[in-house]
Amino acid sequence: MPGQMTAINPATGEEIARYSQHTPHQVQEKVEAAEAAFLDWRRTGIERRSTLMGEMARLLTARRDRYANLMTAEVGKPITEARAEVEKCAWVCRYYAKQAADMLADRPIAAGRTLSYVHHEPLGVILAVMPWNFPFWQVFRFASPALCAGNAGLLKHASNVPGCATAIAEAFSDAGFPSGVFQALLIPGNRVAEVVDARAVAAATLTGSETAGAALAETAGARLKKVVLELGGSDPYLVLEDADVELAASVCAKSRVINSGQSCIAAKRFIVHADVYEQWLERFVAQMRELAVGDPAHEDTQVGPLARLDLREELHRQVTESVAAGAGVALGGEIPDGPGAFYPPTVLTGVAPGMPAYEEELFGPVAAVIRVASEEEAIRVANDTRFGLGAAVFTRDVDRGRRIAAERLEAGTCVVNTFVASDPRLPFGGIKASGFGRELGALGIRAFVNEKTVIVE
C-alpha cells in the first residue's frame, strides 16, 4: 500500500483529508507523460501557449474564493491574504500571457556575419519543489513563465498541502492545457532524487529551506542539470536617524507579519539608529500589540496560526534561547493556551550575535530588534548574515537610501521606504545562502530555456 499525506487544519488541529502518495511506478508514468507532452508542447506556437495562460488567469479569478478557502484550511493563511494570493497568481499569468512572445523573440546581435542572433528553446521537463507558505503563488511564479516558454512541469509540493497541489494540477487541465504538460507528484521529500534521476527531467527549481536546496543542488549537480533556488531569508530593515518614524514603524510591522510571519521575504531583523530607537520601538510595539490574532477564516484576522505545531516549537526554541542569552521581551514570547499552532506577535530587543534571533531565520511573527549608533554600523549588521534575499532602508533622504540599497546592502532585492515584495515584472531571487538564479521578469522566463546562438553566412 502506498503511504499517505494528511492535510491538517493548523488552526484547530483537525484532519481535513488524506491523500495516497504516488508509487514509484506512478511517478515514472507521470514523468513519461510529461516528456511526451513536452515534445508536442514545445512545437505549439507561443501565441497558443500565451492564450492558454490567459485562460488560466481567468479561471483563477473565477475560483478565487474556492482556492483561498483551501489555503486557509491547509496552512492557516488569513483569508484576506489567501484571496490576494490567488489574485496575484492571476496577475502573473496575465503578465506572461502578454509579454512572453516579446521576451522570447529572437535577439539579433551584430557580429560581422550575414546574420547572427539568439534563439530561445525550452529545456524540457522541469521539476518544481515548492513550499507550503505560499502554496499557490510559489507554484505559479514558476509555472507561468516555464510553461509559456514551452517547458512541461512536474510539481512536488510540500507534504502538508496535498489539496493545493491537486487543485493546481486540475486547474491547468481545466484551463485547457494539454494532458501531461503540468502534473502534481504526491511524494515525500526523500523521493525527490528519483525524479531528478529521470532522463526526461532537464532541470529543477526549489523554493524552501537551505537544507532542501543544498540536497537538490547536489543531486542535480551530479547529473549536470540546471537548478534555480530561492531559499531562506533574514531580511534586515534599517531605520536611519532621519527616517519617517511613523512610516517606518508601520511598514516594519506589516512586513513582519506577512503570512503570519511565515515568509522568506518578511522583515526579520530591525536595525534601528539610536537617535530614533525609542520613538520607533514604542510605535512598532504598539502596532504589533494591536494585531488581530485568531481564526484565519475570519475577515478581520491579521495573524493566523503557524502552519504546523513543530514549526511553532522551533520558533519558540529560538525565542527562549535568545532570551536566555540576554535578549529582552518587549511583547509576546509565550505559547498561548488552546488548540492550534498559534504564536503571538513577539518583539525581542537587545538581539546580539550568537543568539538564534540574530543568526537564524525566524519563521513566524517574531521581530529581532538591534540598536546601532551609525549608518556604517547599521550596514555592517545588516550584511552580517549568511542570507541575502531582501533588505530595506528607511530615510527621508531618498538619494542616500538609493545609494545604500544599490551599493551597500547584500541582497537580491533592496528597497527604500517600503517593504520587500515580489512583482511579476521584476526579477526575484537571492544571494549567499538565500539561493541563486532568478524568477519573474524577463530573467524568469529565460531561466529554463536554451539561449541558442545561430550564425548564418
Task: Put the structure in a nutshell.
The protein is α/β, with parallel strands linked by helices and 457 residues long. It has 15 helices and 18 strands.
Topology:
Layout: E1 4-8, E2 15-20, H1 24-41, H2 46-62, H3 64-75, H4 79-103, E3 107-108, E4 115-122, E5 125-129, H5 137-148, E6 152-156, H6 162-174, E7 182-185, H7 192-197, E8 201-207, H8 210-222, E9 226-230, E10 235-239, H9 245-256, E11 267-273, H10 277-289, H11 309-324, E12 328-331, E13 346-349, H12 356-359, E14 366-372, H13 375-383, E15 390-394, H14 398-408, E16 413-416, E17 435-436, H15 441-445, E18 449-456
Parallel strand pairs: 5-6, 5-8, 6-7, 8-9, 10-11, 10-15, 11-14, 13-14, 15-16
Antiparallel strand pairs: 1-2, 3-4, 4-18, 9-17, 12-13
Helix pairs in contact: 2-4, 3-4, 4-5, 9-10
Largest sheet: 7 strands, mixed
Rg estimate, integer Å:
23 Å
**Helix segment count?**
15
Percent helix, as a range, is: 40-55%
Approximate strand percentage: 15-25%
CATH class of the largest domain, anyone?
Alpha Beta
Write up what this structure looks like:
By secondary structure, the chain is of the alpha/beta class. It has 2 domains: 4-231 and 431-456, 3-Layer(aba) Sandwich (Aldehyde Dehydrogenase, Chain A, domain 1), CATH 3.40.605; 235-416, Aldehyde Dehydrogenase, Chain A, domain 2 (3-Layer(aba) Sandwich), CATH 3.40.309.10. Helix content is 41%, strand content 20%. The protein contains 15 helices and 18 strands. The strands form 4 sheets. The protein has a 7-stranded mixed beta sheet with strand order 12-13-14-11-10-15-16, sandwiched between helices. Strands 7-6-5-8-9-17 form a 6-stranded mixed beta sheet, sandwiched between helices. A 3-stranded antiparallel beta sheet has the order 3-4-18, with no helix packed on it. β13 (346-349), α12 and β14 (366-372) form a beta-alpha-beta unit. α2 packs antiparallel against α4 (79-103), α4 (79-103) packs parallel to α5 (137-148) and α9 (245-256) packs across α10 (277-289). The longest helix has 25 residues, at 79-103. It is globular, with a radius of gyration of 23 Å.
